[in-house]
What does this fold into?
Amino acid sequence: MTAEPGRDTGADGQDAHRVAAEALDAVRAAADAAQLEAVRALYLGRGDGRLTVFRRGLGKLADADARRALGQTVNTLTERVSDAIDERRAELEVAARAQQDATEALDLTWPPRPLRRGRLNPVTLAAREIRRIFGQIGYIAVAGPEVEYDRYNFTLVNQPPGHPARDAHDTFYVDDSRLLRTHTSPVQIRSMLVRGAPQRVIVPGKAYRRDYDASHLPMFHQVEGLCIDEGIAVSDLKGTLEFFVRSFFAADARVRWRPHNFPFTEPSLELELACVSCDGSGCTLCKHSGWLELLGCGMVHPAVLRNGGIDPERYSGFAFGMGIERAAMLAYDISDMRLLYENDVRFLRPVS
Ligand SMILES: [Zn+2]
It folds into this structure.
């Protein structure tokens, strides 16, 4: 319906158009959601919005048609401004999202950072593997005290006071009769006294000596082995340890046997492994000999059997002792023993 002149919305209608035009300009100029909300409140606010107030003038118009016309005009203008605000809000949201995408530069195709998992120390890995291998051939793993009596650590394994072999062990003494065990051998005596014969045990555990360099630590791990039965001979010793070496290092690992001397075995032998680095041709690891000392062993001395309560006339046995750090270093190609205990993740990570 077109309002007739004089019955139009008159000055009020003109003013409403002008205010609405201002409002639309302000909506287009709003740079963000907050400014847009301020514009909405200014023009369309309930009660005193600059466009809203025109409704108050309606009551003053006596002419019903003029009143209806002004009412329609204000409604139309309000709707137009309101639509413009909604449209501008949508535009601002799109722009804000584009801005965020540009500044955060989130690339969802980028590969994730690798998840780094903890690894077991090579000594732990080697000890577990040693237990597994000997477990396959009937050995049980046993333990003994680390604070040990001098008697078990030395005397009962054939190193009575004054024996020169004691000097080779730089010992941490706790008091006159007790010490930090310098090897796992005292557990041989303890196991013989508890289990008697026959028995097959290994003793993985810690030992202590006053030593510290690239191949010696004040605390280190040994595995002791003991096999006692009737008729045990050197061939059993060799067969068992060759089986172990081929299981632990490589199926084609070569060994050689050298005579040695230990107080607790007779005869005593040393097992040498063909160098894991040069396979026998000579390198710095094997000091150009082609061979690496791996462990000491021998037939249990009759006196040691007797100290363990076992009759050497009826039973015989063999024993061996090996440094677990040494085995781990050779198996995992580690040059300095101290690396095993520095907890450097760069060192621990590649060993799986
Ligand atoms: Zn070598």
Summary: Residues 275, 277-278, 282-283, 285-286, 290 surround zinc ion (CB under 6 Å). The CA atoms of residues 105 and 111 lie 15 Å apart.
